[in-house]
Amino acid sequence: MKNSLQTYLGAWAGVIPSKDNSSSIEQRAYRLYYLGLESFDYDDIRFMIGQRLGLKLLVPIAIDLLEKEPLLEANYYEGDLLSAVLKLPENFWNYQPMLKDRVSTLLESNMILIEQSLDLRMEADRELKKLVEEFKEKLSFKEGFIRKLLFSSSYFYS
Question: 36 forms bridges with which residues in the sheet?
Fold first, then answer.
């Protein structure tokens, strides 16, 4: 048996898309759900992450790829896989702190490369810059909040 998302997550939970009444996005997501993960290309990983399907399996794979090539172009533009990962909701990162730490480290260690590669005349590059800043902001806000909580005198003396 091939190692598909279905193998790990069980049968498709949604409506099975028909060729006549479903969008190409629904059909592709359904097809990929049953395709062996070893057959996924970079764009399939980007696409399924964008559809929020199989995140616990696909995000670590995406991070592995990004650690080797931070601005990997899955299909549309340089950095589109990184953009898909950074667009994940905060709730996902709250439940996956080790993955969040890996992305944070990835961004920190590649910040110069990322900044030098961005062409801010391009919409996709402006969006990627914004996503990187927002991800870093969320991390620093939480770290700052925790630091204040732990080191405020009212916390220890009240």
Answer: 4
Measured distance CA(1)–CA(7) in Å, rounded:
8
Amino acid residing at 58 = L
**Signed CA dihedral, 60, 65, 69, 75: sign only:** negative
Question: Any idea which residue has 């190409």 for tokens?
Answer: 24
Please state, in angstroms and rounded to a whole number, the distance separating the CA atoms of residues 129 and 136: 11
| Contact criterion met (CB below 8 Å) for 82 and 70 | yes
pTM higher than 0.70: yes
Distance CA 53, CA 135 (A): 21
Q: What is the pLDDT of residues 64-111, one digit of tens each?
A: 999 999 999 999 999 999 999 999 999 999 999 999 999 999 999 999
